[in-house]
Specification:
10% strand, globular, 6 helices, 3-stranded antiparallel β-sheet, mainly alpha, 3 strands
Amino acid sequence: MTENKTSAIKFYNEIVKPTVDDFLHERTSIRKGFLAAIVINHIKDYLYDNYGKKDIKTKINASLYAECPHLNTISDICNAAKHHVLSNKRSVIKSSEQVSQTNIPSLFEVPFGEGGFSEASEVFIVLDKTNENIHYYHLPTIVTSAVNFWETKLNQ
């Protein structure tokens, strides 16, 4: 498995970084959140030669997900955007409908120390709702983590 950093860096600078910046400046946009996940997920297509071959893809993904677990969630979001429903049992996300601009309880609706300000209306991945508890991922945090990982990897 060889790396093609020139293509990956060009794709990152021209497509990924501006798309991610658009989302991080408008954290309430589901559309921009999906687009950020899609372009982040495809950096590996530009970086690794022969990425499309199944055995190579499996090996690369296992290594990348071990280094940055948020890349697995990014991959699920990307696939949910394309297919709507995911049937893979290992997927964290089962449907594109889980990516939403949900009103998570804000500062004045929950016990002290458990709420937030602007985060309450940003894009989240709702994992499950049980009783009155909502388990979720904050998409801007996942996107930022994934982008930081790729910036470091591409600059090594």
